[in-house]
Amino acid sequence: MLFAFRLSFLGKAVHRIFISGGQDAFLEGHVHAFTTLGGVPTGKIVLGFAQQRVETARWTAFRSHFGAEAWYCQPGLQGAAPQASSPRSTTPGGKPSAEPTATPPAPAH
Predict the structure, then answer these.
(1) 66-87 exposure pattern, b = at least 16 Cβ within 10 A, e = fewer
(2) Total count of domains within the chain
(3) Among 32, 42, 59, 101, which residue's Cβ finds the most Cβ atoms within 10 Å?
(4) pLDDT for 52-108, tens place per residue?
(5) DSSP characters for 52-101?
(6) Angle, in degrees to the nearest 10, between helices 23-37 and 57-66
(7) Strands 102-103, 40-41: parallel, antiparallel or unpaired by DSSP?
(8) C-beta atoms surrounding 53 within 10 Å
């Protein structure tokens, strides 16, 4: 399974390949992305399309631990992803600054 995590506004991305497509790979991919990108995004984490979504206790605990908010895409225009929020600061030319727009990940227990 290819895990892909992308910060839409900044265009930064993290990819990782896993042998399985299970929940362990999904959660490990997020931890790897948070570590690689220097923190947890301050906005919503947009997740792909799912006909039937069941939010497990483990995913809920994971999101709570990292302080992440999830947003689930649905088919059609009503389910389109929300617009990415702007970074907190910009350079004089209006481009994003080099400052991170994420909070550091919590230490693993």
Answers:
(1) bebeeeeeeeeeeeeeeeeeeb
(2) 1
(3) 101
(4) 677 889 989 999 999 988 888 776 656 555 554 433 333 344 444 444 445 555 555
(5) S----HHHHHHHHHHT-EEEE--SSGGGPPPPPPPPS-B-TTSPBPSS--
(6) 10
(7) antiparallel
(8) 11
Domain interval for residue 98:
2-103
Is residue 108 situated within a structural domain? no
pTM tops 0.70: no
Q: Residues 32, 92: contact at Cβ < 8 Å?
A: no
Query: 6-52: per-residue pLDDT in tens?
Result: 887 788 899 999 999 889 999 999 999 999 999 888 888 888 766 66
Whether residue 95 is contained in a domain is answered as: yes
- Domain presence at residue 85: yes
